[in-house]
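Slide 14.
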Amino acid sequence: MPIHKLEHFDPNYLETFGGDDIKALELYTEGGDRVGSVGDVLVDDDGHFRYLIIDISLDFVSKKILLPIGLTRINYPERRVYVDGLSKQQINNLPDHKEDAIVNSDYEENVRSVFRSPTSGVTYDRDTYNYQKEPALYGLKDNSDQTFRLYEERLIANKHRIKTGEVTVGKHIETDIAHVTVPIQKERVLIERVVPTEAGKVVVDPNELRFQEGEVARIEVYEETPEIHKEAFLREEVRIKKVVERDTVETQDTIRREELDVDTVGDLHVQDNGINAHEAI
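Slide 15: predicted structure.
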């Protein structure tokens, strides 16, 4: 069965695995010793993981090897891949995997022969061999070594400001007719001609008598005229400000949550020690 690199088989593999990139994980022994990192993944035509391409760095030995997936345990939360029993002798016996290497049936058998147990009872035949014959090399770990993720939806409340209107405050001029009363005074000349009581009885002294032609008496006459002008006065002030009114908006929607279904076959006792995410909040 042909073997493919993961990104060639599924260019969107990061979305397929929910953003988890196995090619960014480190390789550790079950005892916690780092022995390398995952460089790539090889899958079969059905998309099943078959090998991890490992960059080995152990005891001054640096090379790339193929590691059958059944010998590993992937832990995405810890960002690690664990391998149990990988010896320096096995590393030395494995072919140094080159970037342009052709992984055919004979190449895979060279890899399998390094890890195959002498008691496996498997006899290799190129025409009849399949991965199911060696679950120790290609089978998934048991349930205790697998991570099964349960997802739930939550309502996330955000808010943003939108313009709902605009208030424009300006001013304009209105005209009106104003009336004002101003009292004024006018002078006029009153000429009175009277006959003295001594008229014709008193003789005027010739020495005092002065007949003069053109004698004039001048009297200045005044009158008041109204003087009207306009002055501007501050009538009122208009103050404009914004106030914030607070309110609470409640909304609802349907959300989904995955729950675990456990089916057993046979007389088994299964203990679930986990708690639901919403119970832990």
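Speaker note: The two ends are 48 Å apart (CA to CA).
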